[in-house]
Amino acid sequence: MTMRAQRPFAFLLLLAGIACVSEEIDVFPEWTIPVPEGTPVREPAVAPAQERTQTIELERDLVLREAFGRGFFRPLDVAAAADGRVFVLDDGNDRVVAFDGDGSPLFEFGRAGGGPGEFAFPTGFGVAGDEVIVSDRGNSRLSVYRIDGTHLTDHVLETPLALRDVVRTGEELVVHVAPSLGMALRGPPHPRVPWFVGRYTPEGAERARLIELTAFNKAVVRSQYIGELPVVVANPIFVLAENGRVFATAGDEYQVAAVGPDGDYLWSLRASWPVEPVTEERQQQLIDAYVASEEIFANATYDWPGRYAAIENLEVDGNGNLWVFPYAYRPYGVDPGLEHLVPVDIYSPDGDLLLSGLSPLAAWDAAHGDHVFRIESDGESGEDVVARYRLAAAWE
Q1: Which fold has domain 10-391?
Q2: Cβ neighbours, 10 Å, residue 363
């Protein structure tokens, strides 16, 4: 799942998009993610970005633009079912839309409101077995639908649940929970905000936390308009596989843990990856770029961390392989693409390195088989669309 941010907090993305690296590299720095004693450790030799020549081939073979007479309006997320159906959480239209494997609309459900089958500020959703579960934060509940769109029930929650992704394992749910924006932006003392994946009942009651990490590497922005704003540079990142397996990284070092749905650590990996310092020149480039688009920061001051993150993102493809995107510097405003490839390391579900290569993509919103789905902005019209790409298995 791709994390999204909206202005005025675009600065979060600005900083997260410039992760970096230290002149002297510790081959294997200290663990910054939990690794219980006895966990098998993989220590792959990944190639430096400048030495990589193999590129992941992409074919954009489908674009979803509208359904039932309406285009998408601020779509939040995409989920894929085992049978190939694709669901789009169309937040601005207060609905979920289902498409078949050829891109034809099948049905839609949801509308604005607080009644049964209605939404008020959904934060995320996912396909859990034969159900679609929507985290409806405005109504403090989980809304459950049959995979054919039939509304089943709404589970009212005592505490709002900012669900980012969900899969079903047996009678329970494995849920990726992100901290609320209010927690992340609260003034000093700056909180150590937990991000975690937990096991939940179908009614939304927490049973156990499988892994919890804390965002700790911050730049602090001070502005007369907004006070102090702690900005996360190294976010914890979690991705869920369909079988309930969790892949997690703190982001600050090239380290990943694989955790099963029962909480057992399956393996961990760490690799040597250079992390650039936050130089004064780069700080000024970022400040100039951001102030040009956000006048409220014209007189702001900044406290910068000494370095950026080592891992930009994690993803799981439709075959259960883990894609690790280590960060290599690119200027602000330069997105991954055919003109700017980014490094990627692809691992089997058991942690074996399959490929160190380059990719035109660094994130997607859903995966099924050899395809991935991304929410994008159309280059000509500017409208929100969902694009499907076929990934070539370059390591086979």
Answers
A1: Neuraminidase (2.120.10)
A2: 18
